[in-house]
Amino acid sequence: MAESWVNSAEILGSDLPLELSSTGNRRAVLMGALREAVRSGRLAPGTRLPPYRSLAADLGLARNTVADAYAELVAEGWLAARQGSGTRVAERAAPVTPAHRHRTPERPSRPVHDLVQGQPDPAAFPRTAWLASARRALATAPNDAFGPGDPHGRPELRRALAAYLARVRGVRASPERIVLCSGAAHGLRLLAEVVGGPWAAEAYGLPFHRGLLASHGVGTRPVGVDRDGARVGELTRRDRAVLLTPAHQFPTGGPLHPARRAAVVDWARSTGGLVVEDDYDGEFRYDRQPVGAVQGLDPEHVVLLGSVSKSLSPALRIGWMVLPERLVAPVVAAKGEREQFSSATDQLTLADFVDSGAYDRHVRRMRQRHRRRRDQLVAALEQRAPHVRVTGIAAGLHAVVELPPGTERSVVRAAAWQGLAVEGLADYRHPGAEQAAQADGARDGLVVGYATPAEHAYPEALEALCRTLPPPG
Q1: What residues contact 449, with CB distance under 8 A and at least 6 apart?
Q2: How far is 25 from 16, CA to CA, in rounded Å?
Q3: Residue 111 has pLDDT above 80, yes or no
C-alpha cells in the first residue's frame, strides 16, 4: 500500500486556514506556517507532505500558490523533493528548541553590503522613460486590453519581442510562437506540466529552478560543466529535456562551445528531446557581441526562456517563451483560459518601451555600467588579493571568484561577520553532482553579484570582500 501523507491540520495547525482566507500574500503566509511547523517539531524530518494539488484543495488556494511555496522551501533547504517519493521535510531541518531561539546570532541580522547575484540595482530602473511609454501605451490601448486577458499575452508585446529577439539574439520566431509568462520560473513550471520528466540540468545552476521542477514531479539529473559549458555528450535518450544556460553558464560563467551547441541540437533531433534555453542575461556581454541563441539553430527542438528581471527589474514580472509550434497550444492550455500573471498595461508599456528604442538605450547604459563594475572587481582583486582570480567570460551581472581549495566555507562565514552578503559556488551545485565534483576536483569559489549595490556603496562592498579573502598559500 502506498505511503500516506500528513493532512493539512497536522501541517498547519487549526488556525492557519482562517489566516489564509484573509487578504495578504497567501504564499508568504503558507511558507511561514510550514517553516514554523518544522521549527516547532510538529513536522519531523522525513515527514511526507501532501501533493501540492491536495493541499491547495484543502486550503482553498490556487495550486500555483502551493506549488511555488513548496519550490521555494525546497530551494531554502526546509523541504526536499525527489521524483517518485514526493515532497518531504528535509532531514537537516531539525526543530529549534527554546534554548536555540535565544542564542546570540552568529552574524549581523542585516547585511551591510549586498553582493548576492540575481538582480540589478533598483535605483537604475529607467523611471522617466518607462513613464513616457506607459502614457503612450495607455493613450493608444485598444478597449480589449481592459477586458479578460488572452493567455498568449498581448499581441503588441509579442510582435515587439519577435522583432527584438530576431535582431539582438538571432531568434527565429513569429509572434504566434511567443507565449508570455511572469518570468523564467513560471515558464519552467508550465513546461514541466506539458513535457513531463525526467530532465537533465547543468551540474551548477539555480537550486530554485531544480526545486520548482521537482515540486511538479520532474526530477533532474546533473550534466557535468567545464570551461566549454555543459558536457552535452552525457545526455541520454531517457532525458525528456535538458535545461541549459548556453550564452553564459550560470553561475560558472563560460559559454557553450560551438561544437556542443551543434551536438545538443543533434541530440534533440535524434531523440525527440527538448532543449530549454534559459537566456537569463544574454544581452550583457562586454568583451564582444553577444553570441546568438541556440534556438536559432532549430526552433522546433529548442525553447527560449527570457525575461526583463535582469535587464529592467524583477518587479515587472514579465517573461516570455519562444516555443516550437507543437508546444504552443499545450502550454497555453496549461496556463489557463485567461491571463492571470502579467498586467496587460505593463505588457503594453513594455511593447512601447521596446518599439521606441528605449529598451535598447537602457540595455546599452546598463552594459557599460556592469562592465565598469566588473572591471572594478577585477582591479580590486589584482591589487589586494592577486592570488585569487575572476573566472568566466566578461558578461552578466555576476562573476565567480576562484578560491584556494578548501577555503570556501570559511570565507563565506568571514563575509557574514563583515556584514557582507555573498554566496559560495557550492550553493549552486546539483545535489546529484557531488561524486562527479569529487572526481573532477570540486571548485571552491564565491559567486559575486556586482550589479545590486548602489554606486556610492560599491567601493566599500569591494573593500569588505577583499578583507574576507584568505591570505596567499
Answers
A1: 114, 115, 116, 117, 118, 119, 397, 398, 422
A2: 13
A3: no
